[in-house]
Amino acid sequence: MANQYEVLGKAPGPEDLKKLSPKDVHLTIKGLNAGYGKMEILHNFDLSVSKAQSLCLIGPNGAGKSTILHSIYGFTNIFSGKIEIDGKEITNLTPAEKLNSVGIAYILQDNSVFPDMTVEENLLMGGYIKDKQDEAYEEAERIFKKYERLRNRRNQPAKVLSGGERRLLEISRALVMKPSILLVDEPSIGLEPRYINMVFEILTELQKNEKKTIIMVEQNAKKGLEFADIGYVLVSGQTAIAGKGDDLLKNPDVGRLFLGG
Ligand SMILES: Nc1ncnc2c1ncn2[C@@H]1O[C@H](COP(=O)(O)OP(=O)(O)O)[C@@H](O)[C@H]1O
Ligand SMILES: [Mg+2]
After folding, report:
1. pLDDT attached to residue 261
2. Phi, psi of 40 (to 5 degrees)
3. E strands within 60-175?
4. Separation CA 189–CA 225 (nearest Å)
5. Shortest-distance atom of ligand 1 to CA 67
6. 234 within domain boundaries
7. Does residue 147 contact residue 119 with C-beta atoms inside 8 Å?
8. Residue 129's pLDDT is what?
9. What is the reported pLDDT for 108?
10. Which of 54, 99, 126, 224 could make an S-S bridge to 173, C-beta 3.0–4.6 Å?
């Protein structure tokens, strides 16, 4: 990785990370080595997040941010290390098991709405894996009650939605499974500024009112750190700096490298 990041120094240890999420720890990653095929992308990576806390991962392209979300969800090869939820190891569960039994939902980075299906059909796709279909329907109704933007377009093809409404539908589709942890990869990507604010407001509401734990990757470091309680700066598969979102926003190295300051 480029020399400009060397100033960031050595990785904070698990004890430093624990201080940022001292109570009600929800998810932890311990000493994770993971990647694709035989290639290791994450090196001895640690993470800790409390219930209803939000964590934002920032860092240069290719640092391994998405790979962290992939590893939590089960899309990578894990060479060693552990992932735990509520102190219970989940490292080797399949994505379906993660969604169904431990309540982790992954919100895709790419545009994954089916344009010719209705908004309602798209929403119900989120429950396809759920054993109890009735529950998925109930949850979909609750979502329509809550989000007028989706309710008004319920029976129209999803292609009529604005960019921001599409992102809302992608988030809502994950909510049908009633997850307790949301993994969100670059929610602001490709959105006009006014929709970016809308998406962060929606995520803030899900964290504060519905007590979701949120682990997010965000290229827009300023927005991501303003939103999140805590942030990690990832460089070459390791955490270079970890801190409260507000503190990272004030950190001169973070400012210079990631906030255009
Ligand atoms: N599916 C994949 N197969 C092989 N290599 C991958 C795959 N996805 C990402 N990588 C590689 O892993 C590294 C980290 O990528 P990624 O986690 O997507 O970075 P970031 O999200 O921080 O931009 C990069 O070198 C990338 O090329
Ligand atoms: Mg990425």
Report:
1. 64
2. -90, 125
3. 77-85, 88-89, 104-107
4. 15
5. 17
6. yes
7. no
8. 65
9. 75
10. 126
DSSP string across 188-239: TTT--HHHHHHHHHHHHHHHHTT--EEEEE-SSHHHHHHH-SEEEEEETTEE
In a domain, 172, yes or no: no
Domain enclosing residue 78, as ranges: 10-107+180-253
Q: Which amino acid is at 75?
A: F
Nearest residue by C-alpha to atom 26 in ligand 1: 62
Quickly count: other Cβ atoms within 10 Å of residue 200's Cβ.
20
Domain membership flag for residue 122 = no
Q: Give CA–CA dist 105/45, Å, rounded.
A: 21
Q: In a mutational test of the pocket of ligand 1, which residue from 1, 38, 41, 215 has the highest number of ligand atoms less than 8 Å from its CB?
A: 41
Mean pLDDT (10-residue bins), the chain, 261 residues: 67 91 96 98 97 97 96 96 95 87 83 91 81 83 96 97 93 92 94 92 96 97 97 96 97 91 64
* pLDDT, position 245: 97
Into how many domains does the chain fold?
1
